[in-house]
Amino acid sequence: MAKTLEELITRRFQDVAVTGDGEINTAEFLEAAEGVVKMFDLLDSAAFYPVKSDMTTNIEKVRAKSLSGPDPARYDTLQKIVRAEAQAGDRTATQGLLWLKRGLELTAMALKRSLETPAEELAESFTLAYNNTLKQFHGFIVKKMFGVAMMACPTRAVFFDKIGGNREGEREELLAWVNALQSLLNELNIFYAKGAYDKGL
């Protein structure tokens, strides 16, 4: 029997450690973000390939930075990585996290909308989410590519069946997962905005 999303995820966004002042644990956040990639793998749809590919690349950029250097604590939060790169000048991981954040925002918005709007097909949920998140950062060609990709989304019924969302209580779990993700993204959005860390990226 094929595994559900809940069975594939090794760490939920609810379980990512956040300090009292909003510092997000790097390793735990990246592990949780890989759960989104696993969701797209589970769906096995060409519609999500651009987002999945971009997320995977950016997860690796941030992870590579977090594992560099002799002191494991130096980059143990996402914010430490960004602050360190701002001082050093090489902002590879900062840019990777920025684009990972944007891809996760698309996913969170689309899933939340789909979970709360039962009559809406997945293609519409993802298209509206794309228009409100990634679209503003894309050029003409990429916009067209994403537009075509979003129209290739599986039906709502197929989507929720594959990720296990039709089981008793599963949609509530999915919504909690999405809300926890959005809470982490809100912390990162505030952090990036305060430090203008997205400037020039």
What's the quick description here?
This protein has nine helices and no strands. The chain has helices at 5-8, 26-43, 49-66, 78-88, 92-116, 122-132, 140-151, 156-163, 170-195.
Give an overview in words.
- The chain has 201 residues and is mostly helical.
- It is 66% helix and 0% strand.
- The protein contains 9 helices and no strands.
- It has helices spanning 5-8, 26-43, 49-66, 78-88, 92-116, 122-132, 140-151, 156-163, 170-195.
- Helix 5 runs antiparallel to helix 9 (170-195) and helix 6 (122-132) packs antiparallel against helix 7.
- The radius of gyration is 17 Å and the shape is globular.
- It starts with a helix and ends in a 6-residue tail after the last helix.
- Uncertain runs: none
Largest sheet: none
Structural class call reads mainly alpha
Terminal CA distance: 44 Å
Alpha plus pi helix count: 9
SS strand fraction: under 5%
Q: What is the CA-based Rg, rounded? A: 17 Å
Q: Portion of residues in helices?
A: 55-70%
H/E element order: HHHHHHHHH
Mean pLDDT value: 89
- Tally of strands: 0
Shape: globular
List keywords for this structure.
about 200 residues; mainly alpha; 9 helices
Layout of secondary structure:
Layout: H1 5-8, H2 26-43, H3 49-66, H4 78-88, H5 92-116, H6 122-132, H7 140-151, H8 156-163, H9 170-195
